[in-house]
From TrEMBL:
GO cellular component term, pick one: membrane
Keyword annotations of the record: Coiled coil, Membrane, Transmembrane, Transmembrane helix
InterPro entries for the chain: MctB
Transmembrane portions of the chain: 7-29
Protein name per Swiss-Prot or TrEMBL: Copper transporter MctB
Length: 286
């Protein structure tokens, strides 16, 4: 019988094609079994690791609960003895308090001063947003090459406070440069300065031109200075003040922080608080 060459070629091709499919199916079935075993092992390993993580998580939660209990007990202890620890500790201090931020209220400062026995010579806040209201025509001595020199401005303000020049301070207050929060009838010169700062948002230029410029101005007059901020300050400038060798307290909103502030003003220099920039939580009590 005559065999058509095309039929022969097609038949051979079909045989080889079927053989190829069979080999592929067999290979895939074998690989599928291996893959399934690998999946089972992977799932088992993941389940084991998850169980380990659950155990560690439970341990950490328990540790946090115990830590919170310890902190609560510690805070209760500190609050119980807070007034006894600071009462009349600063009777010889006549303080100049300058606040460089509107982001935080420092609501406990007045009470702290009253209990500690200190006197507030002047409490004022600085508003750097209004510095552009100062003109070279009005205050030529405060400018360098047509630009306001903030250190010169702060030297000027500190001198006005030292001289009890309320009229010139009132002029600056009208321009919005500063706000007088409180003053004392005590005409004795202030002998220590407390700077209150901390920002909601990072502002390196403001820190440099206001906070640090103010600190340098005060330090140049050899007046003891301490910088304090609240524990919840989003952007801390403690590190910059440390670089200027200025004592700091980073949790002045807490009782333990105000005790630290009292001790620093009593002469125990250092960097205290709860943040990474602090060298110790609390000064050695003297």
């Amino acid at each position: 019988m005559f065999i058509n060459i095309k039929y022969f070629i097609v038949t051979i091709a079909a045989v080889f094609f079927s053989l190829g499919i069979g080999i592929m199916i067999g290979f895939n079935l074998n690989n599928s079994e291996i893959f399934t075993q690998q999946q089972i092992k992977l799932v088992d390993d993941m389940d084991k690791k998850l169980n380990e993580l659950r155990v560690k998580n439970d341990e950490m939660n328990n540790q946090l609960v115990e830590k919170d209990k310890s902190i609560e007990i510690y805070n209760e202890f500190v609050n119980s003895y807070y007034e006894d620890l600071i009462k009349d500790r600063l009777v010889d201090k006549n303080l100049l308090i300058i606040q460089t931020t509107d982001d935080y209220f420092f609501s406990d400062i007045s009470q702290w001063v009253a209990i500690s026995g200190a006197n507030i010579h002047t409490y004022l806040s600085i508003n750097s947003d209004n510095f552009n209201s100062l003109t070279i025509a009005q205050y030529p001595d405060l400018f360098t090459e047509d630009s306001l020199d903030t250190e010169k401005l702060f030297n000027y303000i500190i001198n006005l406070i030292s001289e009890n020049n309320s009229l010139k301070l009132a002029e600056l207050e009208q321009l919005g440069i500063l706000k007088i929060v409180s003053t004392s009838n005590n005409q004795e010169p202030f002998n220590q300065v407390v700077l209150l700062g901390g920002e909601l948002e990072e502002s390196k230029e403001k820190i440099e031109k206001v906070d640090l410029a103010l600190a340098r101005s005060i330090s140049s007059k050899n007046i003891p200075i301490v910088f304090a901020e609240e524990s919840n300050a989003n952007y801390s400038s403690i590190e910059q003040f440390k670089n200027l060798k200025i004592s700091t307290v980073d949790n002045v909103d807490q009782a333990i922080g105000r005790i630290s502030l009292s001790m620093v003003l009593s002469g125990v220099d250092g960097n205290y608080g709860i943040k990474d920039t602090a060298s110790k939580l609390f000064p050695t009590y003297k």
